[in-house]
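User: Run a structure prediction on this.
Assistant: Running it now.
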Amino acid sequence: MDKKTFTIGILSLTAVILFCANLLVPPRAQANEVVKDRNYQVLTARQQPNDEALYLLDNRSGQMAIFVYNPGARKLQVRAVKPVMDAFVGAGNVR
């Protein structure tokens, strides 16, 4: 086996390994999930570019909480907790 054939074989093997590694990469988390139950609804959504939020709605009390991941503290932090009806204030005036 000459040097040229050996180099082509190594490059081909490397290409196959990189192709397989590319297929095995887990999918990236995306903000497009919704979970709905009788008492709670959970929704992930993009808040800003590269920033996602978790919205948690309590159907019994009508309260909604927004959580955002803080990479510096490495935890979820509460952004706001408000009644859902606050989102519809003034909506009845639109004609």
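The chain has one helix and five strands.
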